[in-house]
TrEMBL record:
Biological processes, Gene Ontology terms: Notch signaling pathway; system process
Entry-linked Pfam families: EGF, EGF_Teneurin, hEGF
Keyword vocabulary terms for this entry: Disulfide bond, EGF-like domain, Glycoprotein, Repeat, Secreted, Signal
InterPro entries: EGF, EGF-like_Ca-bd_dom, EGF-like_CS, EGF-type_Asp/Asn_hydroxyl_site, EGF_Ca-bd_CS, Growth_fac_rcpt_cys_sf
SUPFAM superfamilies: EGF/Laminin, Growth factor receptor domain
Database matches in PANTHER family: CYTOCHROME C OXIDASE POLYPEPTIDE VIC-2, UNINFLATABLE, ISOFORM C
Species assigned in the record: Pectinophora gossypiella
CDD domains xref list: EGF_CA (cd00054)
Protein name (Swiss-Prot/TrEMBL): EGF-like domain-containing protein
Cystine pairs: C17-C26, C58-C67, C96-C105, C112-C122, C133-C142, C171-C180
SMART domains: EGF (SM00181), EGF_CA (SM00179)
């Protein structure tokens, strides 16, 4: 009960109200949820209790007396493969390593589906892909033609023309063969007559 204090004069008194009550006779309950606006944060509902007290009913993803704390949705380590987890409101996001996708990095991506090897065979190695190049090709994507002329295979002044896993020699006059390695025997066709 409230304390009553006599004041000078007839039928004159003052009530000293307990917390949560107001009015001349302390007969009006103060609604703590609307007296100074909703004290609960982040969209929480305020529930009035007795004696001016209240309770906040938090939305999912929030906790604390006023629902001011974002629940850490990464605390249970929901991301597979040790992927980094970012806490969101009532949610989380995983930064999946290459080769994996999905909410928890639980879906394997076929790293060869985009056909990354131009002139070779793609091998999916879990987190990365590897290209096994066809003869004459090199590079991470098998897209660099190996220059077979770099070792100067043509002899006797022949000029090398690079191909795919091959080369051609344009021989100087008087030479023949794949590498211009043979001198032409002009007499081999027996051109002389009547002799």
């Amino acid at each position: 009960r409230a304390m009553c204090k006599d004041e000078p004069g007839y039928n004159n008194y003052t009530c000293l109200c307990r917390a949560g009550y107001t009015g001349i006779d302390c007969d009006v309950t103060i609604d703590p949820c609307s007296a100074n606006g909703n004290p609960c944060t982040n969209g929480a509902s305020c529930i009035a209790l007795q004696q001016g007290r209240y309770k906040c009913e938090c939305l999912p993803g929030w906790e604390g007396q006023l629902c001011e704390i974002n629940t850490d949705d990464c605390i249970e380590k929901p991301c597979l493969l040790d992927a980094p987890c970012t806490d969101l409101v009532n949610d989380f996001s995983c930064a999946c390593p290459p080769g994996f996708t999905g909410k928890r990095c639980h879906e394997k991506i076929d790293l060869c589906s985009s056909e990354p090897c131009k002139h070779g065979i793609c091998v999916d190695k879990l987190f990365v892909h590897q290209c096994i190049c066809e003869p004459g090709w090199t590079g991470p994507s098998c897209d660099i033609n190996i220059n077979e002329c770099v070792i100067s295979p043509c002899e006797n002044g022949g000029q090398c023309i690079d191909g795919i896993d091959d080369f051609t020699c344009n021989c100087e006059a008087g030479y023949t063969g794949k590498r211009c390695q043979h001198a032409i025997d002009d007499c081999s066709s027996d051109p002389c007559q009547n002799g």
